[in-house]
Amino acid sequence: MEISSNGNSFIYDLIIVGSGVAGIYAAIKAARFAKVCIIAKDWLNVCNTYMAQGGIAAAIGEHDSTEKHMYDTILAGYGHCNAEAVKIMVEDAPLIIKQLSEMGMPFCTDQGLLALGREGAHTENRVVYADGDATGMALHDTLSKKLLEEKKIDVYENTFATQLIVNNSKVLGVRTLSGETFLGACVILATGGAGRVFSCNTNSKAATGDGLAMAFEAGVKIVDMEFMQFHPTAFKISGNEHILISEALRGEGALLKNLEGKRFMSDYHDMAEMAPRDVVSRAILDQMRKHGCECVYLDITSKTPNFLKHRFPSIYKKTMECGYDMAKVFLPVSPAAHYMIGGIETGVWGETSLAGLYACGEVACTGVHGANRLASNSLLESLVFANRATKHIEKTGMQPMTIFKREDFEKENLTMLADSVNFSGILERLRSLMFMYAGIYRNEQELLKIKQFIMDNKKIFNARAKDRHLYEMKNLFISAKLMVDSALLRTESRGCHYRSDYPKEDEVWKNHRVESTD
Ligand SMILES: Cc1cc2nc3c(=O)[nH]c(=O)nc-3n(C[C@H](O)[C@H](O)[C@H](O)COP(=O)(O)OP(=O)(O)OC[C@H]3O[C@@H](n4cnc5c(N)ncnc54)[C@H](O)[C@@H]3O)c2cc1C
Predict the structure, then answer these.
(1) To pair with 232 at 20 to 30 A between CA atoms, which of 121, 280, 359, 396?
(2) CB-CB contact of 25 with 390 (8 Å)
(3) In which element (H, E) is residue 189 found?
């Protein structure tokens, strides 16, 4: 076996990139049958998973059923969901929750049973949660503990993956920024989303579309990139930095009010504050425009400070630090980019269009979210399909490794990008253009402005970067291009893709997926 010219080479059965819920859960499951490594570009807990608040959806309530969960998911997804994948997800959900409980996940309980919260567009209370509003942190802590106990998993933190190594239409491994090569029979990309491509977002700094860009550069099929979900209620903490105010607050009775202190959601949807996220986001933007202001208000003053401190401890603390006691005053909120629905197309076993390559979590597009994700279905999707990807790998993917020659994975000779300083202004411009013109409302004229800006800076695509920030910038440019091109192609409005020049759903586009091409 020959190795790369400028660094170490490591050999595993399975290489997992990403240490959010998808990556860690896959690693734990695969350790039963494979020698696994997990690579994360930061410390293990720097990821969207760690920030998740509301919870995990599962039909376990007395009056609930998997059919109802499936129905709500497909309705929220505007008929664009992959029904087979949704069925698998909702049916696996109760068992996944049971297994997490057995692993030690500290789900909140109510009279001896798991407590169930309600979120937008769910017709039943079916969201399990932990530590009040810190489900993601509790989930990540529980899974990381298990991960670090596993002898068959090696963990590489602060290791930035830059490229998939591909030969003869098969993935061979992953290359990193410091020149190491990780070679293996299979690779799982679990690198999360690309929310940071919008100036105003709720995401962790890890969400820069790296896995998406690596897959795109390797010619892997990517779909549905026009669907970016905005969360209606983000709270500004400083500049463009926002924290999420979970939908679970509205599930507990919080009301949305405009500048005049009047409720408005029932003018837009029968479910009022509990309408699907795309409807609530557009209604809020409409109210902000009507009243010429930068926010609307969330009123949860009907609840006692004691209730709020226990049910929403993190949100209560963070907003209090900014001078807002939500038991007494309304919280100013506005929509922010939140969840990447599109991504690397996968089958129901997490398999992609490239042999040996799997994707799960936010970077993947299994089709379960359709055109608009139902709240609290994404942690669930990550868990269900990470588990299934490992089952598929166990059954079919553990082929003996090919013998590599150096030229199989020699780097192409690409231009180096100069340095971060020159480019930071360009990136900030891209992020504001994306928020202004590719956000909740889009139209051809404005999308073309972003496309032009991307083309004016296309040297960024063809360059190999020398540091992490430049790589992330390049990956964000690729993510933006995929989103803008797909949004231009879908000449209708559906779910969270709203074209003001094509404001209606068009039957022609029903069940049609926009595929990203070079
Ligand atoms: C504020 C917030 C609240 C949310 N609340 C909920 C909720 O209540 N319920 C719900 O279902 N969903 C929620 N979501 C969505 C959900 O948290 C995410 O979709 C899910 O956690 C994604 O998990 P993941 O494993 O795919 O990615 P992430 O958790 O984002 O992990 C990505 C990983 O990939 C690694 N990585 C990325 N690029 C590279 C690279 N180049 N090299 C090496 N490693 C790399 C990162 O280091 C990180 O470890 C929320 C999201 C946010 C932001």
Answers:
(1) 359
(2) no
(3) strand 181-189
What are 128's two structure tokens?
A: 């399990």
Q: Which amino acid is at 236?
A: K
Packing angle of the helix pair 378-392, 83-103 (nearest 10 deg):
90
User: What residue's CA is closest to ligand 1, atom 31?
Assistant: 20
Question: How far apart, in whole angstroms, are the C-alpha atoms of residue 255 and residue 246?
Answer: 13
Ligand 1: centre distance to CA 175 (Å) = 22
Residue position matching structure tokens 């997804």: 77
Helices (H) and strands (E) in the chain, counts: 14, 21
CA of 485 to the centre of ligand 1 (A): 24
- For residue 140, give the ligand 1 atom closest to its CA: 29
Tell me the CA–centroid distance for residue 204 and ligand 1, in Å: 8
State residue 417's pLDDT score: 58
- For 130-148, what is each residue's pLDDT tens digit? 999 999 999 999 999 999 9
With beta carbons less than 8 A apart as the criterion, state whether 494 and 507 touch. Answer: no
Is any ligand 1 atom within 6 A of the Cβ of residue 135? yes
Q: CA quadruple 123, 385, 51, 430: dihedral positive or negative?
A: negative
pLDDT lower than 50: segments of the chain: 1-5, 403-406, 408-414
pLDDT, position 210: 98
The alpha carbon torsion through 300, 114, 134, 74 (nearest 10 deg) reads -80
DSSP 244: E
| CA nearest neighbour of 367 among 175, 495, 195 | 495
Amino acid in position 47: C
CA 51-56-59 angle, 5° bins: 170
pTM: 0.95
Q: Please give the full DSSP string across 295-334, using - where no structure is assigned.
A: -EEEE-TTS-HHHHHHHSHHHHHHHHHTT--TTTSPEEEE
**Best residue for ligand 1 mutational test, from 231, 379, 381, 384 (most atoms within 8 Å of Cβ):** 379
3-state SS assignment for residue 181? strand
